[in-house]
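Same chain as my last thread, 257 residues:
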Amino acid sequence: MDLNTIKDVVRPRGGDPLPRWRNGDAWLGGGTWLFSEPQPHLSRLIDLASLQWPAMEMDERGLCIAATCTVAALESASLPVEWTASPLIGQCCRAFAASFKIWNTATVGGNICMSLPAGPMISLTVALDGVGTIWSRDGGERQIPIVDFVTGAKTNALTPGEILRRIDLPAQTFMRRAAFRQISLTPFGRSAALLIGTLSPRDSTFALTITASTVRPVRMSFAGLPDGQRCESASPAKSRTRSITTTCTATHGGAST
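reply #2:
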């Protein structure tokens, strides 16, 4: 879709300071959502692709994913064989209700920043203890766990002019055993519920991440594999956090309690 209110597109280069943020601006990553519907409130786009951030960087500390990394690039990443939880990447990428054309354009950071209940990159990065680095308007930066980054359906911790720069996934989380379960209400529809369980081989700690059926990610941790009674007692529906874990029952993402 043409955005006929856009008067300027800025393409900053790596090393250059980012343009001063003003009303009517929007960061442009892949643009798969931005160009999918009218944006009459926008007048300028700042194209992040021109910064040419490396899609991924890997070392002994783990995997660093640029916010501009495409879903296709992430899915095709070659990771160490000892990273036993790495199949989660492909499973979460395939949880997109989207074609390969979208995979080649949509970005990991864009999916997280859209903060939709069924965002599979949210599911992946929360389950693997992802930490986001946010660039502020004043040139500073701050880190925030992705589980805390998403605050609700289409809401997150970013303030106007801030940008998600990267997501770091620790190497130790890739060493866990992992299980992935997804259910949709139609054969190729968006996720109605997406659950990821991880088990640490070091201390047998177990974590369960729940997305899609809640408006924000829910993470439950246990000292060992829990039985049904322990899972039920730890459920946010039984606790004071009920207000921030509103269930999402509409097929296309609307929230209801």
